From TrEMBL:
InterPro entries linked to this entry: FAD/NAD-bd_sf, Oleate_hydratase
Protein name: 67 kDa myosin-cross-reactive antigen family protein
Single annotated GO MF: oleate hydratase activity
GO biological process: fatty acid metabolic process
Organism: Rhodomicrobium vannielii (strain ATCC 17100 / DSM 162 / LMG 4299 / NCIMB 10020 / ATH 3.1.1)
PANTHER family in UniProt: 67 KDA MYOSIN-CROSS-REACTIVE ANTIGEN FAMILY PROTEIN (AFU_ORTHOLOGUE AFUA_5G09970) (PTHR37417:SF2)
Amino acid sequence: MSIEPQTEKSDFPNPHEARFHLIGAGISSLAAAAFLIRDGKIAGRNITIYGDQPRPGGSLDQAGSVETGYVARGSRVLEPHYVCTFDLFSTIPALDGSRSVTQDIFACNEALKTNAHARIVRGGKKVDSPAFGLSEEHRLAIINIALSPESVLGSSAVKDHFDEAFFSTGFWTLWATTFAFQPWHSAVEMKRYLMRFVHMMPGFSRLQGFMRTPYNQYDTMVRPLARWLEQRGVRYKTGAAVTDIRFERMEDAQRPASLILERDGAVEEVKLDSNDYTIVTLGSMIDSASTGAMDRPAPFEPNRRGAAWRLWEKIAEGHAEFGKPAAFDNRVDQSKWVSFTGTMRDPAFFRLVKDFTGNVPGEGGLITFADSGWLLSITLPQQPHFIGQPDGVEVFWGYGLTVDRPGNFVKKPMAECTGREIMMEVLGHLKAEDKAAQVLDNAIVIPRTMPYIMAEFLTRAPGDRPHVMPKGWWNLAFAGQFCELSDDTVFTVEYSVRSAQTAVYSLLQLDKAPPPVYKGHHNPVVLYKAFAALMN
């Protein structure tokens, strides 16, 4: 099955002459470049990736050192049915060259399967395989959201479909902290998640079936992909913020005519002709992110919009088919969180958590402190988490979803806390305040405030997100978390990769389509097991 472009174009791109400009240097653009080379036979030298950061990676970027502390923005969930992602990475060799990245990830998860024994902690005690605790009314409401057409759910929020008691259930605590949902987020997106992950319900309380990467997702996925692209001549323009795209009309359609970018304090115009194609990653989950330190909170700077949001706002003026960025970048109180990364130079903390949970690092996934005013979660990944991480150093990360409430042990909002204070809160929930001196004296905990990290979950109406191929345009496509794809779910690597694959196949008018979204709800056995799990 082929993907039909939104506007018919009689001539097909010539692989030897076509030039591609990929705006944004996150996983969407990296994936698009790979599909252009692998499936479109486009020469790497004819592909340019523009990014305003010093290196590619976007929200998967992870960095740091044992001296300054490692920084991980977080990690996107993976599961075996991410067909576009694993198709892409089956082509990409892992950094050691021994096998593909896809093979590397599956081998890692075969060797150590996720099986959380302390997914929830209440009152300082772990809850092994926590119950969903749903009433009959709650189960019916979940089924109603899952079965309702998106047109019926419209721009409603999750909270519009449940009573207050639902948000105190074990199901909601597990759901919210696994997927980063809030009561005011989109009911349409919850429907998509229910359908997309229905096969995960039987093991949901232990995170069974969810996958992780051998190292952090930057080292495991971004670095091998970026290297593969560089080896094929793809050009990166780092520190280059595209601030505008100028357009011109051709016959019965429009196309990009030039890119305006700022780099090293200078403004540059890149002229485009009919052989130039542009794929724009819209918006950014990590825009305006700020970094704190052990003794300094991460400042909240929602008005410091970065290049991605400003560009979308600019090009959407007068072009309704480009979507409505204000639907996503104008409600930071509903889209922010605080994450933090701990670099531990003493084994005391990891030993404490291992003894408390009964899980070795990498096995347990998330640990959520359900009593926490911040709705605080941590995860201890398999070590080393960073390539080059020294022996005797361990790294973990965590996040809070309700960051404007006071903590239970540190009586101030998480958004105002230093790394030291966040670590004190974690130790308090583990009933390990007596270990504070030993842990804190050998730790670097770095908080990160991210105003737009959950923007893609906000309530939306039809037209707020543009189609990958906007109607009435040639040589232009959109990608990333803020374009419209049917069935699939945002806040996943899979959504970014699928959007890139769709954009490439459409622009090149290839006689193929991305593999379909996995639909476990079409399998009666999967449905039966999911309904049985909801009775827990």
